[in-house]
Amino acid sequence: MRANSLPLWWLPFLCAAIPFLATHLAWWLSLQAGYIPFCIPYLEGCTSISRAARHGLGNQLFRMFMLPCALLQALFWWSAAAWVHGQTAKRAGALAIAALGSGSALALAVYATFLGTEGEAYEWMRRYGINFYFGLGFIAQLLLIRQLPALGAAGLSPPAVGLSLGMLALGLGNLIARYTVSDRALRDAIENALEWNLGVLLTGWFLLAAWAYARAGLSLSLGLRAGSAARAHPRPRNRPPAPPPG
Q1: Are strands 5-7 and 219-221 parallel, antiparallel or unpaired?
Q2: Mean pLDDT score of the chain, rounded to an integer?
Q3: Which stretches within 155-183 are classed as H helix?
Q4: Residue of 11, 215, 18 whose CA lies nearest to 108
Q5: Which residues on adjacent β-strands are paired with residue 233?
Q6: Helix 10-33 and helix 56-88: axis angle, to 10°?
Q7: What pLDDT digit, counting tens, does each position of 148-187 carry?
Q8: What is the pTM assigned to this prediction?
Q9: DSSP-assigned letter for residue 230
C-alpha cells in the first residue's frame, strides 16, 4: 500500500454494516414504541423491514442512515468498476457494473426517501424502489463475480456465487408465495421472512467484497499530480526483474 493512499476495504464494509444496523435499530425502536408486534422476523415474518422502519424515531433514523449509505454503495460500484477496468481493460464491462450499481443505489435512495409517506404515488416509488434496488444490484453482482478470476480473486467466486444464488432463490420464493399462497396472513408472513433473510445475504455479500478489497490491497491515492486524479490502486503483483541490456 502506498504511504499516501487510503485502503478501500471499509467502503463495502460500511455498505454491509450500515443497512444491517439501521434496519435492526429501526425494528427495535418500533417494537419499543408499539408500532409492531414482537417476534423473530427471520422465522415468523410478523413484520416487514418497511413496516419496521415506517413510523416514529425508527423511520427518521433509518432514513438518516440509509440515504448516505446509498451514496456509499454507488461509490462502491464505481470503485469495483475501476478495479475491473484497471486489471482487465474491459471498458464495457466496467461501465455496465458502474451503471447498474449506480441505478441500484439510486433506487435505494428513492425507497428510503419516501418510506413513511402516504399516497399511491409514494407507495409506487417505495415498492419499485426496493425492487429495482435488489434487481439492478443483483445483476451488477453477477458481472463483478464473472471478473473475479481476472482480478486474481478466483477463490472468492464460490462463496460469492453461493450468496448471489441464495438471494435469487429467496426472490423467487417471494414471487411464488405471492401467487400460490391464498391465505393473506400466511403469504405476508412468508414474504416478510424471506425479505429479512435476503437482507442478511446481501450483508454477507458486501462483507465478502470487503474481504476481496483487503486481499487485493485496493486503495485510493490521496496525492494529486498535475493532470491526474485520485484513483483506486490494486496491490502490484510480483513481476520478474527485467533482463539486463544486451
Answers
A1: antiparallel
A2: 86
A3: 157-180
A4: 18
A5: 219
A6: 160
A7: 999 988 889 999 999 999 999 999 998 899 899 999 999 9
A8: 0.85
A9: -
